[in-house]
Amino acid sequence: MRRSARTPAGRVGQPVTRGKALLSVVIAAGLALGGWALYDAYRTREDSRAEITEACQGLVDPDAVMRFGGSGNKVDADSAGQHLCVLRREVTFEGQEEMHPYFSLTVAASNDAEPGESRFDLGVRSVAVTAKCADPVKSGGVTSLRVTAATEYDRADRGEPGTLAALARGAALRAAAKAGCETALPRAPKD
Fold first, then answer.
1. Between vectors from CA 58 to CA 119 and to CA 167, what angle results, nearest 5°?
2. What pLDDT does residue 82 have?
3. Partner of 178 at 20 to 30 A CA spacing, among 4, 14, 59, 122?
4. CB atoms within 10 A of CB 69
5. pTM of the model
6. Three-state secondary structure along the chain?
């Protein structure tokens, strides 16, 4: 009984040509580079999420902050100055990648009685939320918290309607919870 000839790949039939071998190498390299690119994008996003959480002391949802203000996966913290946090986003300008400030958050606690109810104050590039504490004794004498979320872009608006207000509201609720301040906030304005 005669045995069939085996090719270098160990298969019966057609021999492996250089073209097929080269194609296999190119496909494997493409898969490896694609996998690395996906991993790198994932890692950059996770690093940015961690930086946002740390810089803003957990008061904002990192995914919501990353969606705010447009595209770009890389976000880092800038020097905060009088703000609780200032975040920068990677942008490409004339072929160069640069980090530009795009979001800031400021939190101020008050021991003075603030007139009125909890409210939103809409500025040109910011939204301020005043959260009144129901029981100042439980919150260590704090009667209200004022949280301001602002866009740091040079444009003359707050960005996507309602997004900045929602970020400010979420930060105010988290700051109030940390301070032991029971508060009720109205829904965030949509525009």
1. 35
2. 83
3. 122
4. 22
5. 0.74
6. CCCCCECCCCCECCCCCHHHHHHHHHHHHHHHHHHHHHHHHHHHHHHHHHHHHHHCCCCCCHHHHHHCCCCCCCEEEECCCCCCEEEEEEEEECCEEEEEEEEEEEEEEECCCCCCCCEEEECCCEEEEEEECCCCCCCCCCCEEEEEEEECCCCCCCCCCCHHHHHHHHHHHHHHHHHCCCCCCCCCCCC
